[in-house]
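Methods — Computational structure assignment.
A single polypeptide chain was analysed. Its primary sequence is given first, followed by the predicted tertiary structure written as structure tokens.
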Amino acid sequence: MSVEAQTVQILANWVRDTQNGLAAYIQYYIDQKNTDALSKIKDIYSEIRQIFGV
């Protein structure tokens, strides 16, 4: 497995982790109503969707 594939696999695992991963961080910022962080997350989400063409 290439370094790129390994890194993306680690990212995918972190995204799915509801206790210590991205999902948990996003939920925290939603719960805190942190609009600055949520705005940045929204922008990153838009960039990721553009990469995949969706």
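Note: The mean pLDDT is 96.
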